[in-house]
Amino acid sequence: MSAVQSREIHLKQRPNGVPTAADFELVTNSLPAPGPGEMLIRNVYMSVDPYMRGRMVERESYVPPFKLGEVLQGHAVGQVVQSNIDRFPAGTYVSHMFGWREYAISDGTMVMPVDPKIALSAYLGVLGMPGLTAYAGLLKHGRPKEGETVFVSAAAGAVGSLVCQIAKIKGCTVIGTAGSDDKVKYLLDELGCDFALNYKTCGDLTKALSAKVPKGVDVYFDNVGGSHLVAALNVMRAFGRIPVCGMIDQYNATGLPEGPGNIIQVIPKRISITGFIVSDHYDMMPEFMADMSQWISAGRIKWRETVSDGIAAAPAAFIGLFHGDNLGKAVVRLGPDKV
Amino acid sequence: MSAVQSREIHLKQRPNGVPTAADFELVTNSLPAPGPGEMLIRNVYMSVDPYMRGRMVERESYVPPFKLGEVLQGHAVGQVVQSNIDRFPAGTYVSHMFGWREYAISDGTMVMPVDPKIALSAYLGVLGMPGLTAYAGLLKHGRPKEGETVFVSAAAGAVGSLVCQIAKIKGCTVIGTAGSDDKVKYLLDELGCDFALNYKTCGDLTKALSAKVPKGVDVYFDNVGGSHLVAALNVMRAFGRIPVCGMIDQYNATGLPEGPGNIIQVIPKRISITGFIVSDHYDMMPEFMADMSQWISAGRIKWRETVSDGIAAAPAAFIGLFHGDNLGKAVVRLGPDKV
User: Fold this and answer.
1) Which of A199, A205, A320, B16 has the fewest CB atoms in 10 Å of its CB?
2) Count of CB contacts below 8 A, A vs B?
């Protein structure tokens, strides 16, 4: 096979505040044939996720920042088209970390074969990183007990929508917040939430939550931070748990954001606030895959996707995450399932 | 025995901001002889503690607020002078909950006999509620491992000074903050802290901490909140634990205080922030008493007290807690050990 032309998205400049199209650049790269111990993957779907915003900032963190003028990274699923790795013969479908590009050369590191009988994009959502995030965050850090009340923010998003459904499976009362009436309807009608609020129109969030769940909440799964975290602290019951998955309210802050002024409530209410990262919980992958597959087969877990088409649409799909454009998992389709 | 004249401190008005003398009233009460199933206790020491500020506010909490125009409550140690309870014969020394008064009538609820061979005031500090608070908060919620670094705020106070020493016993590096050079000297020379900072003069607390412990801290025992919590989040290492015992910085806030603007750091650093209350940990009392008695005998735990004299001095002793007047445990001596 001759050199492959692969279009990819580079980080042109570090975003200041909410990312804009000018922060990204579409570049065509000519890939050589895979060398010994390498393979060439044609990507079918790539993921855009809020956490990627953090990697666009130049700072020390648990993963190094994206480099300016280089291709971005992220989860993707694709098909091996040419291979010098025995365990990934050509034709194999795989999930891997080289998203934001149409083709990738890989040495097999952090590559997993996936079952093409299931929708490939599911490996970027319900059966992928967002799925494990919801599962591990809720069950390990939220520790919901049957009969308890679970509050989920960004509940119509990739992670939140799964947290809501897993909490229902575990016998909890679930209240979710989202940023549009359509999303609220989705939470109630499709995801089985007991209560849902449009945080943009419900007025004071503490009062709105208290009106729906007067006894308060036992677990708050935080995807948002900011005023959501403040309201959660206000309505939290004694010994409540707050797994912190994300704080999308703060990802684009240009100064130091306002902190929760009522943080002192952790003392009288004996609240635990625990930040977590999905990659610390890969040990839960086998039970996650077993439970999730069974729940999907039984029709107990549903999901939706917001699909953009073509590599050129990836920056807009990513930017849309911060404007609430997505219902469920946002993915970008880079090519057909089969060629 | 005829009626006893007992002077006691009433809450005259709810403090607005830092409490002042005008919030309290000294009242003389005439106590009847104890009835059937009751005893009369002459108090020798009473405790003043920062947590009492919270009970002076009219709000729902884990304990009901103090009532206006009524005697305050708190820990005290005293001697039974007249008794109709078999298990507490006259002469017995006891710790109990009816402080802020010279004499108390009790039916024996929440009363424990104490050993008068040990300084009676110790039962209000190192062997009492502050001792168990330090022990349970650090060991159960802080979970320090040998070789880790523990940061303690209000480190020269009743609880903080014990946390520092228990952390040293557990093989940790300990850094404490306090509000005067004398207290800093006390932390280094008497309590065995590895490092100590006067937070009022050290400049930016994050930088000052980083200069002393460049690798960061694994456990932050929070007695203070506010800018101490912000600095702790900044210097925290991955998987750090923050047991929150108190937030004295915020007890006298008249509006909503500023929250930690860097709370998002809980995610990349996978930090746990856990509020706790000592009364949830009474199950640890036997191991606490065993460990603490042994450590005291071995000279591994030291303590100091700031003693005020006479019931009339109690409001000033309490108010002094918020001005940093006390080194170690603040107590009020109400009478001689023996009469």
Assistant:
1) B16
2) 105
pLDDT of residue B44: 98
Helix (H, G, I), strand (E, B) or coil at B155: coil
ipTM over 0.90: yes
Locate the chain B residue with the closest alpha carbon to A265.
Answer: B275
Tokens standing for A230?
């403040």
B317 Cβ under 8 Å from any chain A Cβ: no
> Quick check: A269 pLDDT over 80?
yes
- Residue B288 pLDDT > 90, yes or no? yes
Hey, what's the torsion of the CAs at B287, B290, B291, B297, to 10 degrees? 170
Q: Give the pLDDT confidence of B69-126 residue by residue, as tens digits.
A: 999 999 999 999 999 999 999 999 999 999 999 999 999 999 999 999 889 999 999 9
Asked whether the beta carbons of residue A270 and residue B276 sit closer than 8 angstroms, the reply is: yes
Return the CATH number of the domain spanning residue range A129-280: 3.40.50.720
Pairing state of beta strands B24-31 and A93-96? unpaired
Q: Which of A237, A250, A249, A278 is nearest to A141 (CA)?
A: A278
Give me the CATH code for the A4-125+303-333 domain, please. Answer: 3.90.180.10
Q: Answer yes or no: CATH 3.90.180.10 is held by domain B4-125+304-333.
A: yes
Tell me if residue A200 falls in helix, strand or coil: coil
Which residue is closest to B248 within chain A, CA to CA?
A264
- Residue of B228, B245, B265, B267 to mutate for A, most A C-beta atoms under 10 A: B267
The rounded distance, in Å, linking the Cα atoms of A217 and A220 is 7
Cα(A107)–Cα(A84) distance, integer angstroms: 9
Rounded to an integer, what is the distance from CA A93 to the centroid of its chain?
Answer: 21
Measure A45 CA to nearest chain B CA, in Å: 27
